[in-house]
Every structure is written in C-alpha cells, then in structure tokens.
C-alpha cells in the first residue's frame, strides 16, 4: 500500500537534513510502526507522506503510484491523519457534527452523503454528542471524534501521530483497541508513529526504529517482544522502555 524510498527532508534550502534516506514499505491491511525518541524525525516522515510537508527528496508511492510533492484532492480521500492532540486538531467554535462534515465539504461532496450518526457509533460515541463543542468532551471522546472525522471519507490509510500520548493511561487502551477493531473491520492500513514500544508492540506487525533522522533497524514485532534487536540504539531504547516506571 505504501512504499517510501530514500526520503530526505530539510526544513529549508541548504539546511542539514532532519530525515535522511529513509526507506520502508507497508503491506495493505497491516499496521507499521515508526518508533524512536522525541526529535528523531518520526513525525517529519509522517508529515511528508501526508503532504503537509512538500519540501522533501525521494520517492513516495501509494499502491504502486508515485505521489507528486503537491498532493491532489483524491489523495486525501484515500489517506487521512489522526493527530497527537485531539483538542488542538478540532476547531473550538464548531460543533462536532459540523467538523465531521468538513472533509465532505473539502472534497465537494454532499454533506448528507455519509451518515454521521453511524460513524460516531462506529467509534463508540453517542450521536447526541455531535451537537456539542470540543471543550464539552473528555480527552478520550475528542480523540474518538478525530478518528471519526478521519473515517468520514472511507479512506484506505490512516496516519497516526502518537494518537494516545495525550490521553490518560486508562483511556489509551480503549483507543488502541478501537483502532485495532477499525483496522480489522475496514481493512485499513496504518502507519503509527510513537515513542512507546508497548503501544507499537500492541498495534503493529512490523517496526522501524529511528535515531537522529535515520532508520537504524527494521524488525517484526515478534522479535521486538523477544528483545531480539541488533543495533546498539535499538538495544538502549528497549532497555529504557523496560525500565520505565520502575523507579
């Protein structure tokens, strides 16, 4: 579904690259994790793939078709993104129902062509909440709304940028299980960015580990769970993850 070859990203002409020669492929219907410490370039890769950052070199393909740096409107019907902060990604002065219809308006589609209530139910929300504003919802409810908005165009791919890191631990599991169910039921393909190895291990079948803008290792999740990583950075990251919360 997704293939990236030699992706290099700079934030300006003549600047040092923040992402260098990143390459990986994601099979249709699977979940692929991109993991590493904060600032290693994970979200930058996601933004380049999503079209939010067009200043890159390299090749990005969607189901075998190369993508132009300036994404076309049909691209956004097939690829949607769920951001880290559900409050920041929702408009504070628009109702939930209005925001769910926004992707349809952007695509020039009839705003009544998709059953908003059905989409809300699919993410575990009462349709009555659609007349509320974001500040009237909990963090978990807001992230469910963000996921619902991404589903309005019935995409093939969801790009997930730390989708649970801004949530309480008890709510994180609910959102991750919801995402798992949606992928299974809808045949979605996920690219999940996270610094949390436990989240990636739960969600993904294959993982790429990034350090300082480069992928240092790609492994399947079974090897990650066994601790069978080879690169020194991967080993340090795994040790740090296992020690987290023990102090």
TrEMBL record:
SMART domains: AAA
Catalytic activities: glutathione(out) + ATP + H2O = glutathione(in) + ADP + phosphate + H(+)
Family the UniProt entry places it in: Belongs to the ABC transporter superfamily. Glutathione importer (TC 3.A.1.5.11) family.
UniProt-annotated location(s): Cell inner membrane; Membrane
Pfam families linked: ABC_tran
Species, as recorded: Rhizobium johnstonii (strain DSM 114642 / LMG 32736 / 3841)
Stretches that traverse the bilayer: none
GO biological process: transmembrane transport
Keyword Transmembrane helix carried by entry: no
Record membrane topology: Peripheral membrane protein
GO molecular function, one term: ATP binding
Protein known as: Glutathione import ATP-binding protein GsiA
Subunit structure: The complex is composed of two ATP-binding proteins (GsiA), two transmembrane proteins (GsiC and GsiD) and a solute-binding protein (GsiB).
Record-level GO cellular component terms: plasma membrane
Highest taxon above the source species: Bacteria
Record keywords, A-Z: ATP-binding, Cell inner membrane, Cell membrane, Membrane, Nucleotide-binding, Translocase, Transport
EC number: 7.4.2.10
All residue ranges annotated as the ABC transporter domain in the record: 2-237
Known role: Part of the ABC transporter complex GsiABCD involved in glutathione import. Responsible for energy coupling to the transport system.
InterPro entries (alphabetical): AAA+_ATPase, ABC_transp_ATP-bind, ABC_transporter-like_ATP-bd, ABC_transporter-like_CS, P-loop_NTPase
């Amino acid at each position: 579904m997704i293939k990236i070859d030699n992706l290099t990203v700079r934030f300006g002409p003549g600047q040092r690259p923040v992402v260098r020669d990143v390459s990986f492929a994601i099979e249709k219907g699977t979940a692929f994790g991109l993991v590493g410490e904060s600032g290693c370039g994970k979200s930058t890769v996601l933004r380049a793939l999503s079209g939010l950052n067009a200043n890159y070199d390299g090749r990005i393909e969607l189901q075998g078709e190369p993508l132009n740096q300036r994404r076309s409107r049909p691209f956004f019907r097939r690829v949607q993104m769920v951001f880290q902060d559900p409050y920041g990604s929702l408009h504070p002065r628009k109702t939930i129902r209005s925001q769910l219809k926004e992707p349809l308006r952007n695509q020039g589609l009839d705003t009544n062509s998709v059953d908003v209530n059905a989409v809300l139910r699919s993410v575990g929300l009462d349709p009555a909440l659609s007349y509320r504003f974001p500040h009237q919802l909990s963090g978990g409810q807001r992230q469910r709304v963000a996921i619902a908005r991404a589903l309005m165009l019935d995409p093939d791919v969801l790009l997930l940028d730390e989708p649970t890191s801004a949530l309480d631990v008890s709510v994180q599991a609910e959102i991750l299980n919801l995402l798992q169910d949606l992928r299974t039921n809808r045949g979605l393909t996920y690219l999940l960015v996270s610094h949390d190895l436990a989240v990636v291990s739960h969600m993904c079948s294959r993982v790429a580990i990034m350090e300082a803008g480069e992928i240092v290792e790609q492994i399947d999740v079974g090897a990650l769970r066994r601790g069978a990583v080879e690169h020194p950075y991967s080993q340090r990251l795994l040790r740090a993850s296992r020690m987290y919360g023990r102090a």
